[in-house]
Amino acid sequence: MAGSGTAHLRDRADALLRVEHLVVEFPAAGRGRKVHAVSDVSLDVLPGETLGLVGESGCGKSTLGRAVMQLPRPTSGSVRFGGQELTALKGEPLRRLRPQMQMIFQDPISSLNPRRRVGDIVAEPLAVWRSGQSHGDVQAAVRAVLADVGLDYDTAADRLPHQFSGGQCQRISIARALVLEPKLLVCDEPVSALDVSVQAQILNLLEDMKARYGLTMLFIAHDLAVVKSISDRVAVMYLGKLCEVAPSDGLYDAPTHPYTAALLASIPVPNPEVRPGVGGGTLSNDLPSPIDPPSGCRFRTRCPRAGQRCAEEEPVLRHCGDDHWVACHFPVGKLGQALSHTGPDAMAD
Amino acid sequence: MKPVLLDVAGLSTTFPTGRGPLIALDDVSLSLDRGRTLGLVGESGSGKTVLARSIMGLLPAHAHRQGHVWFEGQDLAALSPRDLRDIWGREIAMVFQDPMTSLNPVMKVGRQITESLRHHLRMGKDEARTAAVDLLDSVGIPEPKRRADEYPHQLSGGMRQRVTIAIALACWPKLLLADEPTTALDVTVQSQILDLLQAKQAERSMAMILVTHDLGVVAGRTNEIAVMYAGRIVERADTATLFAETRMPYTESLLASIPRVERPSHTRLQAIAGRPPDLVTRPGGCRFAPRCPYAQPRCAEEEPPLLPAPTPGHTFACWYPVGTPAGDEALARNTASNEASNKAADRAADGR
Ligand SMILES: Nc1ncnc2c1ncn2[C@@H]1O[C@H](COP(=O)(O)OP(=O)(O)O)[C@@H](O)[C@H]1O
Ligand code: SF4
Ligand code: SF4
Ligand SMILES: [Mg+2]
Predict the structure, then answer these.
(1) Which of A87, A254, B94, B125 is the most buried (most CB within 10 A)?
(2) What is the ipTM of this complex?
């Protein structure tokens, strides 16, 4: 198989989201050239679960999140939402599913219409999707959802977004996403532009909203500490491919892909006795261009363990521990060692 | 004896606004020796950038600045704009959060470095070009010769920040002010840029003020830390002491709000409730009181002064400091009364 594999998919009919062999390509300058933004990625999210998707800027996380929403449609592959194949749906049937999938973004201020009042911004999805509702019902729904995200309707509804701080704008966009009571919330770097103190408020709010609204979440960010704190399971992504998939705590206890180890080593540690970068090489250089990704393992140009095989053969996700999957020929750590002892592909599905 | 490198004395900066004066910096004093690194930490709006710009004298015309900025014994606050221009770049340089603040989008990056070398160090054209390529190389830019002929938009965010660092370092400044140089970057690029700054700082024994909202960023990379809140320094200590003997509840809260990768997932974060005060209508008393888990009635009435702690070099401003009997008692009192009011609320809810 030439892709990143599907061994890590759980055999569960009730998965709310199941993405298989997803490919998203964009045309690039130059004849026949393409940006390989997402290349054969598979993942699933069970109802009530939060899946974290972590990786550097430009690795395809946001593209993947948007392709799940069919914004724009993926180049190929399957996206099943609640058992329905979204890539085959068109027009009205797809439109009817949209309220069940909502998204929030990194820059809360610019994702809100600067000329509309906050009350109208939050009410807008209702006007579009539940146009039959009475004015009183709409206002009651907006009041309730604003209260849920910690804002008071009477003081907030008539004001404009620029009168709020970044953290409050993120609360407003969360309210706008929740007013339709979606099943799936895709969060694309929702706290990356915020201070640590506001970040903590928003992460706590998302946890509360997940419980109150019974949400399933796809949480995208570049900081593994943030992702781990909110996710049940984490998928590590690099240049359009998955590197490692594991339960959050398992990923931290036994990082097995060299890239995961590097991401962990990059997290700033609020302890003066920990020398930054010690105990796991941090990464040098930038992400290579997704127009012309490296052959074999895409991480090989920055990987301290890269060997001949890495340039020739693409690693496939294989089982290495409890619900723990890694795509690497020379994996690291305790699970990596165990894998090497049992032979290179002995534990593959 | 040589005077200390930087000695900020009673610096205040005010912006007139339609609602009245906004006191962004309120009587800040701070000194820094040669070759030392100071972390300046606080939430956005706490005045970190205004402090850095007030030190530089890089403020908008309508800003009103008071106090002194002694730099090697000379008061920068008393210098004319013309004399200041000779200090900028040469003695003190600045790196901003957004590299595009200091880069010219329509000039090749090599030229942006040579301009400063030719102006300040009176280098010839070829000499400056060679020096610029060497500088790009020294800040970790691959293929520096080729990169020198590129425009800023052709570089990634991390590479652009390296270029601004190269420009800042070009004339061997004695002090580098780095204002949130990594806040807009990914964690992986952040650690590269911080490593670079640290290496350059050590190599040149340059003093550096590293501004950030994240105590994690400065923990392993600074000699001392000053924590700012609402325009004041509220705690200052050498880095090890600040973490080991935190006294100011605000410092403790900032630290607690950082997600820690070693904790189990879904561990609830200790967010600081609410937001920093409005600096135009700020009420008296301790500025942190409305958000402080330790606050007592006295805090709303009297502003705590910045006073020395027993450990040399450690100062803080708080009536009920963390880790002292007074602080422990205050916290216990608040916890008990919170529990009582939660119980009352539960009873009220049950009765409904
Ligand atoms: N040019 C300006 N005009 C008016 N107010 C300003 C100006 N620059 C900063 N301020 C205000 O000064 C306070 C401190 O801001 P700042 O120094 O940018 O904080 P930080 O860098 O800690 O985020 C804020 O309330 C901010 O709105
Ligand atoms: S497959 Fe090779 S290059 Fe890729 S991560 Fe593993 S060791 Fe590194
Ligand atoms: S003086 Fe009072 S309100 Fe201010 S930090 Fe100390 S305990 Fe908190
Ligand atoms: Mg700032």
Answers:
(1) B94
(2) 0.91
Any idea which residue has 């049992």 for tokens? A342
A310 lines ligand 2 (CB under 6 A): yes
Ligand lying nearest the CA atom of residue B12? 1
For the segment B185-226, what is each residue's pLDDT rounded down to a tens digit?
889 889 999 999 999 999 999 999 999 999 999 999 999 999
Question: Which pair of structure tokens corresponds to residue A219?
Answer: 């949480």
DSSP state of B210: E
E-strand spans in B96-195?
A: 175-179
Angle CA A175–A179–A184, to nearest 5: 90
Give the residue ranges of chain B where pLDDT is below 70: 349-352
pLDDT at A3: 46
Q: What is the Rg, in whole angstroms, of the alpha carbon atoms belonging to chain B?
A: 23
Cα A270–A272–A275 angle (5° rounding)?
100
Instruction: Write down all domains in chain A, each with its CATH number in brackets.
Output: 7-82+183-347 (3.40.50.300)
Q: Model pTM?
A: 0.92
Q: What is the pLDDT of residue B13?
A: 98
Q: Which residues pair with B73 in a beta bridge?
A: none
| Whether the Cβ atoms of residue B132 and residue B112 lie closer than 8 Å to each other | no
Measured in Å, residue B343 CA sits from the centre of ligand 3 at 26
* pLDDT score at A349: 40
pLDDT less than 50: residues of chain A: 1-3, 279, 344-349
Cβ distance B187 to A223 less than 8 Å, yes or no, reads yes
Residue B22's DSSP bridge partners are B15
The distance of Cα A312 from the centroid of its chain, to the nearest Å, equals 29
From CA B178, how far away is CA B180, in angstroms rounded?
6
Stated as kind and residue range, the H or E segment containing B335 is helix B325-351
Residues of A in contact with B201 (CB under 8 A): none
Q: What is the pLDDT of residues B313-350, one digit of tens each?
A: 999 999 999 999 999 999 999 999 988 887 777 777 66
- SS3 label, residue A107: coil
Contact B305, B317 (CB under 8 A): yes
Phi, psi of A44 (to 5 degrees): -135, 155
- pLDDT at position A287: 86
Distances B228 to A196, B143, B250, B284, B306 between C-alpha atoms, Å: 15, 40, 9, 17, 12
CA distance B320 to A32: 68
In sequence order, which ranges of chain A are alpha helices (DSSP H)? 61-68, 91-97, 118-129, 135-148, 153-156, 166-178, 196-213, 224-230, 248-253, 258-266, 308-312, 333-341
Question: What is the 3-state secondary structure of A166-189?
Answer: HHHHHHHHHHHHHCCCCCEEEEEC
For residue B342, the model assigns a pLDDT of 79
Q: Which of B156, B220, B257 sits opposite A274 (nearest CB)?
A: B220
Instruction: Spell out which residues of chain B touch residue A208, defining contact as CB-CB under 8 Å.
Output: none
Q: How many CA atoms lie within 13 A of B207 on its CB side?
A: 18
| B162 reaches A (C-beta below 8 A) | no
Write phi, then psi, for A298 (nearest 5 degrees): -70, -20
Dihedral angle sign, alpha carbons of residues A51, A54, A57, A59: negative
What kind and span of H or E run contains A53?
Answer: strand A50-54
Chain B window 203-222: which residues touch A at a Cβ cutoff of 8 Å? Answer: 213-217, 219-221
**Which pairing describes strands A184-188 and A216-221: parallel, antiparallel, or unpaired?**
parallel
pLDDT at A1: 37
Task: Specify the DSSP element, H or E, that contains A242.
Answer: strand A241-247
Cα separation, A109 vs B115, in Å, equals 37
